[in-house]
């Protein structure tokens, strides 16, 4: 509607975590991932000087990995490819769950200045019972992720196929994301976005912030304990914190501390997700009332209203902490 006949979009892909993901979108636009990027940056500096509008959105604000729409219209030859290592493992589509979590190693490398300040890591050892539940359901569990930490002792004896760290490849992560039953992010980690690109369900537990607008299917979040008032914060109080929850020092300054999801809460969330993927998740009138109250509390705190494709909190978590949250 600007009256222009066309425009160019430049995406700085230098910081992307998976270039194979970007290549999937080359069906729809020209994509350059080589030295021509340096040339494009030079053009960016010149565009305003020759009379064209220059709108540059930084990677830190608009992460192309996360915000591009699902890549469902892939070329047939792309759909057919299965990485060699995965062929040897004989992973059946929809018969495995991806496990992913935040790692100290990743933060130390990619967030050097702020790694000690990030409020995103939790004790993944508490997921033992929930992982056992998946195994008992006949599902295989595959861990993915970059620069991953060693599994805690409580999880080492479980049948987890570890394809993270030195065992990962970009193409491998995409095949797994496209063919998993669902992806489970134990804590705040961006890996689940890959599943969204293929319209696969996602569960994220131990969220450090209240979610609104993300493409998780279901999520669980952490309660916050107020040491000064000697009680948990209500949902509205949590929602009003906004940016404070992202940093350890900010939380301590206000006398606040996160309370991680318990082992039983993780089991309940995974059970709810299994019902979701089996199309057996039925909400009672009470459940719908809880979801409505959750939405109303966030809207009162300035969050956008809940839309159909927005993430939903695990009802099991809302029920378990009704008196605290509402």
Give a short synopsis of this structure.
Helix content is 36%, strand content 12%. The chain has 326 residues and is α/β, with parallel strands linked by helices. It is globular, with a radius of gyration of 21 Å.
What's the count of strands?
A: 10
Strand content: 5-15%
Report the order of strands and helices. Answer: HHHHHEHHEHEHEHEEEEHHEHHEHH
Number of helices: 16
CA distance, first residue to last residue: 46 Å
Low-confidence stretches: 46-73
Mean pLDDT across residues = 77
Helix content: 25-40%
In words, what does this structure look like?
The chain is 36% helix and 12% strand. The strands form two sheets. It has a seven-stranded parallel beta sheet with strand order 3-2-1-4-5-6-10, with helices on both faces. The chain has a three-stranded antiparallel beta sheet with strand order 8-7-9. It starts with 18 loop residues before the first helix and ends with a helix. The protein has 16 helices and ten strands. Helix 7 (128-136) packs parallel to helix 13. The protein is globular and about 55 Å long. The longest helix is centred in the last third of the chain and has 16 residues, at 285-300. By secondary structure, the protein is α/β, with parallel strands linked by helices. The chain has helices at 19-24, 36-46, 64-67, 76-80, 84-89, 104-110, 128-136, 153-156, 170-179, 193-196, 235-239, 248-253, 263-277, 285-300, 315-320, 322-325; strands at 96-100, 140-143, 160-162, 182-185, 202-207, 218-221, 223-226, 231-232, 256-259, 312-313.
């Amino acid at each position: 509607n600007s009256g222009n006949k066309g425009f160019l979009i430049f995406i700085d892909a230098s910081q992307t975590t998976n270039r194979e993901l970007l290549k999937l979108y080359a069906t729809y636009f020209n994509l350059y991932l080589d030295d021509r990027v340096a040339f494009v940056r030079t053009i960016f500096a010149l565009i305003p000087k020759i009379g064209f509008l220059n709108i540059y959105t930084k990677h830190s604000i608009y992460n192309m990995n996360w915000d591009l729409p699902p890549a469902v219209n892939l070329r047939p030859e792309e759909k057919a490819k299965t990485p060699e290592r995965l062929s040897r493992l004989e992973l059946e589509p929809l018969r495995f769950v991806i496990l992913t979590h935040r790692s100290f190693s990743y933060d130390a490398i990619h967030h050097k200045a702020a790694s000690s300040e990030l409020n995103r890591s939790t004790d993944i050892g508490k997921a033992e019972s929930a992982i056992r539940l998946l195994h008992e359901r006949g599902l295989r569990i595959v861990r993915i992720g970059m620069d991953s930490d060693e599994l805690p002792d409580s999880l080492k004896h479980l049948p987890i196929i570890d394809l993270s760290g030195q065992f990962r490849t970009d193409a491998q992560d995409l095949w797994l994301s496209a063919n998993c039953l669902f992806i489970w992010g134990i804590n705040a980690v961006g890996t689940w976005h890959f599943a969204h690109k293929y319209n696969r369900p996602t569960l994220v537990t131990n969220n450090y912030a209240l979610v609104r607008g993300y493409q998780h299917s279901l999520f669980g979040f952490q309660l916050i304990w107020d040491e000064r008032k000697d009680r948990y914060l209500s949902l509205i109080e949590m929602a009003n914190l906004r940016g404070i929850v992202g940093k350890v020092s900010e939380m301590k300054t206000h006398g606040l501390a996160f309370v991680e999801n318990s082992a039983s809460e993780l089991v309940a969330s995974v059970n709810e997700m299994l019902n979701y993927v089996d199309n057996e998740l039925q909400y009672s009138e009470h459940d719908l009332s809880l979801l409505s109250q959750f939405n109303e509390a966030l809207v009162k705190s300035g969050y956008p209203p809940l839309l159909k494709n927005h993430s939903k909190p695990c009802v099991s978590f809302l029920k378990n902490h009704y008196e605290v949250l509402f």
